[in-house]
Amino acid sequence: MAESFKLSTVFPIKPKAIYDAWLDGKKHGEMIGGTAKASPEVGAKHSAWGNYIKGVNLDLIKNKRILQTWKSTDFPKGSDPSLLLVKLEPVEKGTKVTLHHFEIPDGQGDNYKKGWHEHYFTPMKKYFSSK
Description:
The chain is α+β, with helices and mostly antiparallel strands and about 130 residues long. Strands 1-7-6-5-4-3-2 form a seven-stranded antiparallel β-sheet. The longest helix has 21 residues, at about 110-130. It contains three helices and seven strands. It is globular, with a radius of gyration of 14 Å. A hairpin with a 2-residue loop joins β6 (about 80-90) and β7. The protein has a single domain, classed as Alpha-D-Glucose-1,6-Bisphosphate, Chain A, domain 4 (2-Layer Sandwich).
């Protein structure tokens, strides 16, 4: 049975800055402190952390929503990619980012939930607080 979870946090910057950084390979890499490839086009491939994560952009609503397939090298051989929905909502102090990661292989959800905090939210807070 697949697992899923939602995480949210607020960044002190406008949704456009997060949307643009998420879908630009150079900025995405700077934002997470690793390597990344990305594109603001539906159907384009993305990767992060030296191809540890790979996927495809499925749907993009400018400055509001990003839907991507997402698969790590830790997924069991032959498993389908998971889905990642990134919602960007303007709030008084910046942007509320909500990640809904679903269709994760059974037994791996907690590991990815921890990973989103350590490898995305923490470096993103540092990156965007300096902008």
